[in-house]
Amino acid sequence: xxPTAFPCNPLSHKLKARRGGRxxxxxxxxxxTGKLLRECLKSxxxxxxxxxxxxxxxxxxxxxxxxxxxxLEEIGIPLRLIRNPVNRGFAAACNQAARQSAADYLLFLNxxxxxxxxxxxxxxxxxxxxxxxxxxIVGIKLLDNAGQVFRSCARFLTPGMIxxxxxxxxxxxxxxxxxxxxxxxxxxxxxxxxxxxxxxxxVRRTLxxxxxxxxxxxxxxxxxxxxxxxxxxxxWKSIYLADAAAYHVGGASSDLIRARRLFYALHSRILYGYKxxxxxxxxxLAGATLLVEMFTRLGSALSHVSxxxxxxxxxxxxxxxxxxxxTIARSRSDSPS
Length: 337
Fold this sequence. Notes:
337 residues, alpha/beta, Spore Coat Polysaccharide Biosynthesis Protein SpsA, Chain A, 9-stranded mixed β-sheet, 39% helix, globular
């Protein structure tokens, strides 16, 4: 499924700031995150919106089986809960919650994050400054429970980056070659980047509508990178702000399904290759993923003497072999030549 068509009025892609009455809508997609979701929602109460109004917090529950979405109404925030009977995926659930929103800004927030006092006030004030009217996406510093900074910003993927990762070249020649994640930078200063992590993804609502939201062909993983690249092509900047922070656990729900997590990661990467690198390059990356990377991954698992890792790899590739034929067929007409 391609990006969703959002109803909106035609607007210039350079926005004029309005004074007063600015609003924020927070969107959280949940799948079996246990008590982390509740802690995330409680942290929203303590975050200072600095003159902004948080009009709604929407939790989309993608058919969780752990009761993590039970009893959330008592937390004391303007909450709306959407219960999906099946797991629709992250991109589709985000679009579902964002549809027909009237808020000025949308914050896509992972349920394994916890906001601090300045998590909202600093990035919202930054976006309101006239000098930043061409900034469409903002992320902030993410900390683990020990207070250490996650190096979470990323570059747009290139075929070379993907191939180097397949063969483990990045580990051999680091830091000589640019990698997808900007791990060489300590994330302690504010700068323009290709992409900020989707764990805290603050977007102008008009930009989200203009781009049609997230591309729902990405079930999970890289839907946010794809959005950032499309925003870049449309003339918008992504900014990482080091002056605000939130806590992030990371992998809270995907750790429960390691084989399926690897399948989604590989499948999304192949989709990204087809969409942004062309059909022939995408097909080459798909072939290398199936015929080369599987064995490098298995060899690594064998060196770790990890039977569970080998089992997860084989399970992921079994799903990938089944999913790729229709993906390749659809991508022939969708991807640039």
